[in-house]
Design a protein that fits this description.
two-stranded antiparallel sheet, alpha/beta, DJ-1/PfpI (chains A, B), homodimer, 7-stranded mixed β-sheet, 8 helices, about 220 residues, Class_I_gatase-like (chains A, B), DJ-1/PfpI family protein (chains A, B)
Chain lengths: ~220, ~220
């Protein structure tokens, strides 16, 4: 079995974690475990959703794959030199993972742990500068792969679904990834085309920034 | 405030619920609450993920919007005439909602509750016949809207994200929906094109069916 660990922390973004989970758990040879500092419920940014952490960092000391979600809670964690408890865990497990990956501002945690030094990487569009300040080189690409280093980063929130499909291809084969895509009926048909900074107009960006004031 | 209720039940599919949640909670005028038969943790199909139910059906008797997720657990619920406790709740709250919606096999629960009688509707591709047997008329469309009846159904799993963007447009305005799309960086770039039954080849379908035996 391949064990995928998804670390959670206070004020994470749910879809960053649940998008990849949903793809990966479709594969019978892959198990997913949600880990945290303690075995407890972890709440999203706004507190409206709680996910169960079923294991502690100590319990899961050799996962095959790590998927680090983002969320506004990352900003607190990167204030600790090295990324705090989660940063220490990432440094300790990364040497033996097949892939260490992030979604959205989860990249800030990889960077704070020292895993992105000098590498190109992606993150949520609004965190590009923070990522660069932590030693990585932001590129506005949806998924950035460094296969020799076994590091993959995905852009904001929903991009974790795209990354997870690629992960299944790398871990199993292309047919498995396509089966997962069919099983989650991922044939995206967004009603608008405003999902990237380069595509959204100024009015959309202004509204997004207004919403971020109220719901960070 | 607009209150969105997402009912959970044992063996639900996480992304069905969390995709729409992630879009809707970006809007400061929208609150989301996860409801269930009891205030407790609810587990997904495979038991690998638990989500917190913060309110009971009795607590939330007049939500503005309902989003019903699917999952293999629906098959047990529809064996009860009328869809059991969740079916009773759906019948009781629907008359005063702005929109009653479903993702994936959540449509089976709307149908079992009698809300889809004679209407076209969509669901996960593998549940089309079950949906028809419950009185709806399956169409292989990603999102099916009946605005006079205030009913919207979405196809399998990931389609709830597309539906939620449209819901935001209906509830607030198009600019709000585009801002939500930008905030979740929903600029999908799946690495393959196998996300719909009409697009997946026979080998992909065979692999998907094989996986469904192990992880239903």
């Amino acid at each position: 079995m391949t064990l995928v660990a998804i670390p959670l922390f206070p004020r994470f973004t749910a879809l960053d974690a649940v998008g990849p989970y949903e793809v990966l758990q479709r594969i019978p040879s892959i198990d997913v475990v949600f880990v945290g500092s303690r075995r407890d419920e972890m709440r999203t940014e706004n507190g409206m959703l709680g996910l169960a952490c079923d294991a502690t960092f100590d319990d899961v000391d050799a996962p095959d794959v790590v998927v680090v979600p983002g969320g506004i809670g990352t900003r607190e964690l990167i204030r600790d030199d090295g990324g705090g408890a989660i940063g220490g865990w990432l440094r300790s497990v990364h040497p033996t993972t097949a892939f260490t990956t992030s979604v959205c501002t989860g990249a800030l945690l990889l960077a704070a742990a020292g895993l992105l030094d000098g590498l190109t990487a992606t993150t949520h569009w609004r965190a590009a500068e923070v990522l660069n300040d932590l030693g990585a080189r932001y590129v506005p690409t949806r998924v950035v792969e460094h296969l020799p280093q076994r590091i993959i980063t995905a852009a904001g929130v929903s991009s974790g679904i795209d990354m997870a499909l690629r992960l299944v291809e790398l871990l199993v084969d292309r047919q498995a990834a396509q089966a997962a895509q069919l099983l989650i009926e991922y044939d995206p048909q967004p009603p608008f085309d405003a999902g990237a900074l380069a595509k959204a107009g100024e009015a959309t960006l202004a509204r997004a920034n207004e919403y971020l004031q109220a719901r960070p």
